[in-house]
Specification:
The chain contains 12 helices and 8 strands. The protein is of the alpha/beta class. An 8-stranded parallel sheet has the order 1-2-3-4-5-6-7-8. The longest helix is centred in the N-terminal third of the chain and has 19 residues. It is globular, with a radius of gyration of 19 Å.
């Protein structure tokens, strides 16, 4: 079965790797704010350290061997792992410069190594106009298949963010919100009432902002205004989805006059426009229960396989869907991503895909 891995993290070997792509070619001023409580055992797989040493995920050739070839991955969608705290950086110009430099670094240092690498256009959301310009600058590269950011300075339905969505809508790329940075720098934190006191509390709380952002984007009519843009929620989990869809529909029935711009039930917008990566899947004591829960809202058509390589909680494509129905697996492992990222239109659905679909 073909495999599209919707979340692979490529890392800077060090911040100096950005220097050739920064406006002044000086990376000494670049820094990222503290991003909350880290895993006391480290955040990366120990076996992902490149043979010559260094940062896991920083050697594109070793990643080919250790991940793409080892698991038969047909396409790996790269999400920059080093700047996960970028959204909390208070200096808008620096953040935008780092985002642009990271995109150029991806194109020049990673794409030539292997055609299976696809990219994400990193944007810094505190300057929506520059973020929109960056989207237009990079979208002509057919291997840049989505736009990504790691936190938002406001609820994502707010009109402040609309220039970013307008650009995404114009170029026809999905918008990815990736976990990370909610607790960094000037951001509010995942727990809006205060800061967590342990790593496990921090890690559980990572999913919380996604609920607020989905509610905001749906009820503010983002998907009515920008119908060519989809949302990918990356690493936020998914089993909270039925509650949110049912609650939104219940409240809409009672108060639809508040949102006259909506033309459908809120859950219908989520089913069509919102997508979720599989890592992490919240696994209950009886694994079949997660299938029952997700089937109630049609999540088999919304899920995208992701490994989160090279992070410690990596999910192998060999085991991640154990216990799932056989007819779900092709959808989650490659069909949903093939459609969402428009790989056929980009001339990228070749090889294994031609034989499988």
């Amino acid at each position: 079965m073909p495999i599209i891995d919707a979340d692979v993290h490529h890392q800077y070997p060090n911040v100096d790797a950005l220097a050739p792509y920064l406006p002044d070619h000086d990376a000494a001023k670049v820094f990222f704010p503290n991003a909350g409580i880290g895993n006391p055992r480290g955040g990366m797989r120990k076996d992902a350290v490149p043979p010559g040493g260094g940062v896991p995920g920083s050697d594109p050739r070793f990643m080919v061997e250790h991940h793409l070839d080892a698991y038969g991955v047909d396409y790996a969608i790269l999400n920059p792992g080093s700047p996960l705290a970028l959204g909390g950086l208070p200096f808008e110009d620096m953040a935008a410069d780092v985002a642009s430099a990271t995109n150029d670094w991806t194109v020049h240092e990673w794409f030539p190594v292997d055609p299976r690498y696809l990219g994400s256009i990193l944007v810094a959301p505190r300057d929506p106009q520059r973020a929109a310009a960056e989207i237009h600058r990079m979208a002509s590269n057919p291997r840049m298949v989505q736009i990504t950011m790691t936190s938002s300075p406001c609820l994502m339905g707010d009109r402040y963010m609309h220039p970013i969505y307008q650009a995404a809508d114009e170029v026809g790329l999905p918008m990815c919100l990736h976990v990370g940075g909610a607790d960094a720098g000037v951001n509010f934190g995942s727990y809006f009432g205060g800061a967590p006191s342990s790593f496990i509390q921090h890690h559980v709380g990572m999913c919380i902002p996604a609920l607020a952002h989905v509610v905001s984007m749906v009820l503010e009519g983002v998907f009515e205004k920008f119908p060519n843009m989809h949302l990918v929620l990356n690493e936020f989990g998914v089993t909270w989805l039925p509650f949110l869809m049912w609650r939104l529909d219940m409240e809409y029935r009672a108060g639809r006059e508040d949102v006259p711009w909506l033309k459908r039930m809120p859950s219908e917008y989520i089913r069509e426009f919102v997508h979720f990566t599989t890592q992490p899947l919240e696994t209950p004591d009886r694994p079949k229960d997660i299938v029952t829960l997700l089937e109630l809202v049609g999540a088999q058509d919304m899920l995208l396989y992701s490994s989160d390589y090279p992070h410690w909680d990596f999910d192998s494509p060999k085991y991640v869907l154990s216990g799932f129905p056989a007819d779900w697996k092709p959808k989650i492992m490659f069909e949903n991503s093939l459609k969402l990222f428009r790989l056929r239109e980009r001339g990228l659905a070749l090889g294994a895909f031609a034989a499988a679909v």
